[in-house]
Amino acid sequence: MIRTATRVLALSIALLAVGCHDSNKVTNVDPLPARVDGVYSVTGDGEVTIYWRPNQDNDIDHYKIYRNSAPTGTFSLIGTSTSTSFVDTHVTNGVTYYYAVSAVDLAGQESAELSFENVFDTPRPEGFGATITNTFSADSISGWDFSARARRSSLDPSTDIYYGAQNGHFIVYVPIDTEIQDAGYVPLRDVDFAPPSGWSADGQVEAIVGHSYIVLTRDNHYAKFEVQARSSASMLFDWAYQIDPNNPELTRRVPK
């Protein structure tokens, strides 16, 4: 009994000594993940893709993506991703959305702050491989109505652009109450915002393969298209149209 008691007493003294010694040590606390940065978005048709830089912490498990209808206020969680991108398909064309991202580590700790970039996006419809005919030979489908995604006659009041080829000249025309300008040899995806000026003085531009063009319709909607092919019979083009009036955003440029 005495031996046992002595061992217990000795062990208690030893533990007390260790406890006193360890109290001088600094506890190793796992810090919260750093704030996510480099967030940007790319506009799509009925979708928005959000990208960001990889977090520099080496114990990141996943990222959380948040969305709001305004640049400030409460952002709601809409999904997670283990990569550095996320596609939001629960959007409506013509509606503007604001996004933020946070990081979560293996311990389940989340960044104390959301990403600070003011990232917003307005998805819009787009199309590829549309064809309109030469107004001088087949006028009934020589025009294009961006809002309806449909071919029209050049004289139809809904027509936004129409095509004409004559005497070796290939021309895209717009009605008198519509504006157009040539953006040059720029891929359609890189035409991100419509400029406030620079419109054609006579409502027509030369149709050049590989050139992109910007249109401001009669009802104040912006559109863009890129000529893929042209001939004396027709013009082939890709396009995008912003259904939110007076909104010049046509796509967010992807950083190279």
What does this structure look like?
- By secondary structure, the protein is mainly beta.
- The protein has two domains: 82 residues, Immunoglobulin-like (Sandwich); 116 residues.
- Helices cover 8% and strands 37% of the residues.
- The protein contains one helix and 17 strands.
- The strands form four sheets. It has a five-stranded antiparallel β-sheet with strand order 8-17-16-15-13, with no helix packed on it. Strands 10-9-11-12-14 form a five-stranded antiparallel β-sheet, with no helix packed on it.
- The longest helix is centred in the N-terminal third of the chain and has 21 residues.
- The protein is elongated.
- The N and C termini lie far apart (79 Å).
- The N terminus and C terminus are likely disordered.
